[in-house]
Design a protein that fits this description.
Helices cover about 80% and strands about 5% of the residues. It is mostly helical. It has a three-stranded antiparallel sheet.
Length: about 280
């Protein structure tokens, strides 16, 4: 009985800490978003404070993700915890790219989405998808996938900026352009991230094939759609190199590849976990 009480006490403390980290991370992300909107509205850059808030949010977010995924019983690889981990990777990659090309406008879209992901993970994740042993190979595969998805998600955000800018120019809605970074910077960053993303996606698919097991539910569909997404991004890079694709046509290919990638992972996991109730 004392051991059981001690276990429950430790679990309650862990749950409380997870709650505190979730609330704090969401607050920091939303405050950083508000700061950028305020700075943009007043046309006064406040980059240092935005970077400090973003780094603090990323650190707290990392703590929340680690407590949610790494449990006493094993690794929680449900769709929500893994989504929170991917958003952490996306924000980390965004901050790294920020050091080279300060594109603060991304935070207006990225940070609220991250806060939403953390909120849903804290509220709805029940630990029902815990695995007691991932193994080295699967851990490497997950890590490669997280980085690949992070890079290609950032590229997709850039593509959406291109689409917004193009539509704004055609409709004469010039006011919204102050929230859109220079198109040349977007274009360069987008293709850098796609090139890096496809390298990590190649490694992710390759590592997945090493441990491929056709008997695992949904794995065939997941692999096939992932390869299709890889092909879309590969064609886009060839089009860029051979025919100078950029602008709207590049953004459409990027979004198409991202949608396939999202379907490959989240679509298959949601189908298995929610509708078929399998891990």
């Amino acid at each position: 009985m004392p051991a059981l009480a001690k276990h429950h006490g430790a679990r309650n403390n862990s749950d409380m800490l997870t709650t505190i980290l979730a609330v704090l991370a969401c607050a920091l992300y939303l405050v950083a978003t508000g700061l950028h909107l305020h700075s943009t509205r007043n046309q006064q850059a406040d980059t240092p404070r935005l970077v400090i808030l973003s780094v603090l949010a990323l650190l707290v977010h990392g703590g929340f993700a680690s407590f949610t995924i790494v449990t006493d019983s094993g690794a929680n690889i449900g769709v929500l915890p893994m989504g929170a981990l991917m958003m952490w990777a996306i924000n980390g990659l965004y901050l790294l790219s920020f050091l080279r090309r300060p594109v603060t406008s991304l935070s207006v879209f990225l940070f609220p989405l991250t806060a939403l992901s953390i909120g849903f993970t804290w509220w709805l994740s029940d630990g029902s998808r815990i695995r007691d042993n991932l193994g080295f190979g699967l851990t490497v595969h997950i890590a490669l996938s997280v980085v690949a998805y992070g890079l290609l998600t950032l590229a997709t955000l850039q593509a959406l900026f291109v689409a917004v800018a193009d539509r704004s120019l055609k409709t004469g809605a010039i006011g919204i352009m102050r929230f859109v970074p220079p198109l040349q910077a977007i274009d360069a960053m987008m293709f850098e991230q796609i090139a890096l993303g496809i390298i990590f996606l190649t490694l992710s698919i390759g590592s997945g094939l090493i441990y491929f097991d056709a008997s695992v539910p949904g794995l065939i569909h997941h692999t096939f759609i992932s390869v299709a997404a890889w092909a879309v991004f590969a064609v886009l890079l060839v089009g860029r190199q051979q025919w100078g694709w950029r602008g709207v046509i590049a953004s459409r290919w990027t979004v198409a590849g991202f949608l396939l990638l999202a379907l490959a992972y989240f679509g298959s996991k949601i189908m298995l976990e929610v509708f078929l109730d399998r891990s």
